């Protein structure tokens, strides 16, 4: 098994963390993983993306040229990365910030109102966890409880009170798939 | 018989390569005497510069490192941070300290790095053959200011003590002149004070010493001493520029 | 009584000591050329072991002793 | 052993502390800034020294001082900063001082950009500063290897009294991978009797120096250094060959580029092309032995680099004209895709 994922969005949407949590969960489940960020000025307010590879074997390249899955949290990300997605791959779109659908019919497109759901839960910032939930629900690449363990791992001590809402957001994302 | 004077222990018996009447020999001896008097020879590490004093490691009988041009304060910082209980000093000339090494000296001073700097100011580049230094006086002739230093072209001399005195880091800054017995003794007392500051953990200390360079000034040794007394002290007034308040 | 030892092969003939000597008992030894190629300094009668010469000497040419009072 | 997910830069920093690094001196530059930031947090807690210098020039000279004082010391920077450190590196080599220098390479020349590059290969492997000298150059390709090589770097530095360079790139520094910090028994290393620690009862004073005014002495010194370098060349060259057993074609790549090339090799294998990967782990000494091993059956070599072609010269020197050597490079911070390299592999097979 090998899964290549690109996650992209605005700086500040928690894109990097979403990738880190996924990579960390997969590591906890005994997989080989790699995570690379886009780094540089775009980290501070522009577009941000990260690449996550999860595999049963040694990972040759951490750099992804045609992902199995794209999580696009805003429109520029969708436009930039959708053409790269493998035929038969999956694009998860944050519907709230994307008013268009990609013009490809060889890929599966899952639209989810991640920002809306997050807002409903009481914090726009957990939209990333909603999207991650969709990814986890769709692929089953890691168990939800492992993801929750990872969220806890990444939350600093003074933010532990955020665990509950993050967990809720993740589960809502998973539920979106089961609908 | 009581010893009035003999070579300090911290100075090797080696003859120096310095020119007749050069101030370096005296300053080396003063530093070595202070090291002896404070009983710190065994735990002192010196840093030699690039310039006339590049071979200082052959003259001092303490552990020594030779540093790249201008970098002695950085090298000394590395030593002091690695071995905080040792005594670390740099020995630098005006080109090394006030031109190529300006950044290093300013920042070592600003950090209050607990080292002692012996700064020999003779207003000229000696080792490379008498070129203009950052401390060359206005109007002074050198190989690279053959018509006299023209401020329109080459700017003005840098007063290191005054400049560093604006910083909070230094604990002790003083300037002495190597002109007569009284002032040589005063230079020694400043050097001693500077090392004592370090031993007390008070931070950066520097002693600037106005020193004759008869060869590159084109003067007899005695005239060179007179020139320090008459000309250099006008631009570089001796005295203490910073010291801790008593009490 | 005082004793002044001159390491003549260290002397570079700068003459600073001659100038500073309060008793004017130092002069160049014109009959000698030392290892460094200079006429080294020499001392005449009348040294009071004040140490001025050693203080200004850049080359550690001098070693100076003084008879302690009451001692031998 | 616990596996942790860590960024290359931070894993490197942690490994340095565990390897006994006592002092770190550096100056901020992207893309290695997490490394000093990590050490700024950790060193004071763990009995070490972190100091942000006023410049790269000052930082490397602080390294000189601390190395001369006999402690394990490290600095890190990225390409333009490493250029500034060259003066100090030359002095460190001349004075035979052990230290570890990290270069997380970015695009150049000049200020370039902050994206990954491998265009400092010549600078790293040919000396870089003035004078006849070499530095050992280690080129990790994963975060785990980065960690393992940091321990080795300090040991090699102490063993040979020579600076060791760790040559990474922006991706390696920024990427996260699982890593295990294995406990390593301390190596038997020569005592640093030469260090300037203060005489502390020693009869003769120690001097750290690279100045030899007498050319006879300097030649002697340089010959001694080169004898040491020859010994390093014989003993310390390292490499990895992947998919090499039956290979007729070889891709040669190091660092992050080797990872991408590995993916390309696997693509080619799926199409039945007998291609393997030679991955130098030491760039100096260059692992010529890897080529000796495969030359009897090698039909051609393809060097892939994030540069306009630098390591390819060492590949040619190692192959000695016995097989064609092709080159493919992306530069200025651009990174090739595995597909691009795959196309080049096919071209190589067509040409030879």
Summarize the structure.
The complex is a heterotetramer of chains A (179), B (247), C (72) and D (352). Chain B has 247 residues and is an alpha/beta fold. Chain B has helices at 23-38, 72-82, 94-100, 102-110, 151-154, 160-164, 181-199, 214-217, 221-235; strands spanning 2-5, 44-48, 63-66, 87-93, 116-121, 172-177, 205-210, 239-242.
Write up this protein.
The complex is a heterotetramer of chains A (179), B (247), C (72) and D (352). Chain A is α/β, with parallel strands linked by helices and 179 residues long. Chain A has helices at 15-28, 75-81, 114-121, 127-139, 144-154, 163-178; strands spanning 2-10, 32-37, 47-55, 69-72, 90-94, 108-112. In chain A, helix 1 packs across helix 5 (144-154) and helix 3 (114-121) packs across helix 4 (127-139). The longest helix of chain A has 16 residues, at 163-178. The two termini of chain A are 26 Å apart. The mean pLDDT of chain A is 93. With 247 residues, chain B is of the alpha/beta class. Chain B has a single domain (23-242), classed as Thiamin diphosphate (ThDP)-binding fold, Pyr/PP domains (Rossmann fold), CATH 3.40.50. Chain B is built from nine helices and eight strands. Chain B has a seven-stranded mixed beta sheet with strand order 3-2-4-5-7-6-8, with helices on both faces. Chain B starts with a strand and ends in a 5-residue tail after the last strand. The model of chain B has no long low-confidence stretch (mean pLDDT 96). With 72 residues, chain C is an alpha+beta fold. Chain C has a single domain, classed as 2-Layer Sandwich (Alpha-Beta Plaits). Chain C is 14% helix and 22% strand. The longest helix of chain C is centred in the N-terminal third of the chain and has 5 residues, at 16-20. Chain D is α/β, with parallel strands linked by helices and 352 residues long. Chain D has two domains: 3-236, 3-Layer(aba) Sandwich (Rossmann fold); 240-351, Rossmann fold (3-Layer(aba) Sandwich), CATH 3.40.50. In chain D, strand 4, helix 4 (79-94) and strand 5 (99-105) form a beta-alpha-beta unit. In chain D, helix 1 (8-18) runs parallel beside helix 2 (34-42) and helix 9 (255-270) crosses helix 12 (338-351). Chain D is globular and about 70 Å long. The chains are: A alpha/beta (179), B alpha/beta (247), C alpha+beta (72), D alpha/beta (352).
